[in-house]
Design goal:
Blueprint lengths: L1 E4 L7 E6 L5 E3 L24 H45 L3 H30 L2 H15 L11 H29 L1
Antiparallel strand pairs: 1-2, 2-3
Helix pairs in contact: 1-2, 1-3, 2-4
Length: 186
């Protein structure tokens, strides 16, 4: 079944057709110098050259990893901004001798720190799902190009990073709980 593009003319222009098996065959070239031009038919054997598939797999794995890491960093950024706002509100409440409000603000900070940690940890674990695929794909590309420094994913480094994040968020929660105790004592 051809896909038709009319371009304002009476006779439509067929760009590609979809075979019954789901394969897409382009009926026109996109240009001699276009990186999008398909020169070989999908039916012909390409002698084991899986470069396009390797590029697609690497792009997909990298996109998955980057999207999850970006979401985790956005959570950390939100936590820092919200923590600054809560700290300012806490200092104002303590200065105005509104200790009950300071307790509520401190408990909010504790909940915020715990929630940011849990969301960030979840995004980090989701990103880690892509690391084995990235490591394997980078190893294949490094072997094919004979460049060992292309292997940048190290599977063991996630544990060290997670320990540092646990310590940082644990200290934030302890600080927030300490501010609750300070507000309750006064």
């Amino acid at each position: 079944m051809p896909c038709l593009l009319t371009l304002g003319v009476r006779r439509p222009l067929a760009l590609f057709k979809v075979a019954r098996c789901g394969r897409v065959d382009f009926l026109c070239s996109l240009g001699k110098h276009s990186g999008m031009a398909v020169r070989k038919s999908a039916d012909k054997d390409q002698s084991g050259d899986d470069t396009a598939l390797l590029i697609a797999a690497l792009s997909h794995s990298t996109g998955w990893y980057e999207a999850r890491i970006d979401r985790g960093l956005q959570v950390v950024n939100y936590f820092v901004v919200a923590g600054a706002v809560l700290a300012t509100a806490y200092v104002s409440a303590i200065s105005g001798k509104h200790y009950a409000i300071a307790v509520v603000i401190s408990l909010s900070g504790t909940a915020l720190a715990a929630l940011a940690f849990l969301i960030g940890r979840r995004q980090r674990h989701r990103a880690a799902e892509a690391e084995p695929a990235l490591a394997e794909l980078q190893a294949r590309v490094a072997k094919r190009l004979d460049i060992d420094s292309f292997r940048v994913v190290q599977l063991g480094s996630a544990k060290r990073r997670e320990a540092a994040v646990r310590i940082a968020f644990g200290l934030a929660i302890l600080l927030s709980l300490g501010s609750v105790i300070y507000a309750l004592v006064h």
